[in-house]
Description:
Chain A is mainly α. Chain A is built from six helices and no strands. Helices cover 76% and strands 0% of the residues of chain A. Chain B contains three helices and twelve strands. Chain B has a six-stranded antiparallel β-barrel. In chain B, a hairpin with a 5-residue loop joins β6 (181-186) and β7 (192-198). Chain B is elongated and about 125 Å long. Chains A and B meet through α1, α3 and α4 of A and α1 and α2 of B.
Amino acid sequence: MVALILRNAVFVQVRLFGAVPELVLLVVIAVAMDDGPESAAVVGFVGGFLQDLTNALTPVGLSCLAFVLVGFAAGLVHSYVIRPGRLLPTAMAGAGVLAALLTAIAVGGVVGQEYLVSGYQLRVAFWASCYSALTFPGVLLVVRRVLLTARLGRLSAV
Amino acid sequence: MSIYRPSPTRRALLGVLILASVSVLTLDFRSSGSAFRGARGSVGAVLAPFQKTSAAVIRPFSSFFSGLAQVGSLRAENERLREENAGLRTRNEELGRAAAQVEDLKKLNNVAIPKGVTSVGARVFVRSPSSFEWVVELDVGSSQGVATGNPVVSGDGLVGKVISVRPTTSVVQLVNDPKFAAGARLEKSREIGSVVGHGAAPLTLEDVDPQVPIAEGERVQTAGVASSGFPPDILIGYVRGAPPPSASLQRTVFVEPATKTTRLEFVKVLLSS
Lengths: 158, 273
């Protein structure tokens, strides 16, 4: 929810070539890297659903579906990484955002949202993935800290 | 981190989530957006205060940064538009000149030339650099049949007469040259006098009967007297100031030349009469 507020209230004002960083999706990818694909898929479903509710025109369920798929895939891919490089999370986040947006565009095209399938939207998807990749290290740091705190809380409760 | 092996339960979770997403999408699509209208309104209401606050705080900075991001493309576009504008301006000027030339040529083509007189078209290519003589040079000469004394006309009226001829060029003394003089006739009264040039000042019509009434704007034409070399009834100009009839012996009438000699381009030389 915090990511959604930040995206829709703050970053929507600080666009890069018309694109906004996909903060909710970045949280999903960060969860995928830190907690595995299932958690990411669940967070992706909830986060995507909430994000869809903030959109006025695009159908509800579009981000939901894309975030679930990308969250699960990101967790899956990350589980095969033996020695993560410093730039790997950033690259994965960029690729994940691009994949999610392309999925949303493709599915949107299938369900009759033809305006999504255009050169402009593809350009925006590209810039959104670049912008998201740049902001990802900060998101990853915060998500890791939140998840760590939650785990420590659970441990202390046990 | 361990290599992930999805268990059937986990696979089922993914399947359920995908199915739920597709169901939500289908529900929203089938209901044309009405299924989640209430939920959308609620989320919007939650976000609205944050969005309003951030808009007030961040917008001035975001405008600056978005402007920075577009500086390169804006500069390039500005340069491109500037070049395009210069090109269009030049083209517009060319078209304006061409239109004026077409107008001149049309008028020249419609000039009534007296019967038995042949003519040759010419273009003015040099104006006299002197402040004291009002002459121009034409791109036709003796090889085109031009001879000294030939009258020269434009679409508006009399231009002057040829005073010097070379094989391919000729020099024309303009009607407003101070040494120019030609026999002239007032159109209505048919009174005859002499038109004399005065440089930038209007022409004067001299030796006119002081008793004859002359109207402002009356046409002044060539008289066609044999010695002048000009055929009759070529427009010289219009009366612009005539003193009333009097008992004096002299009467000078001011005449505005019909041809603007400073913007001559196409003319006709009348070859024989």
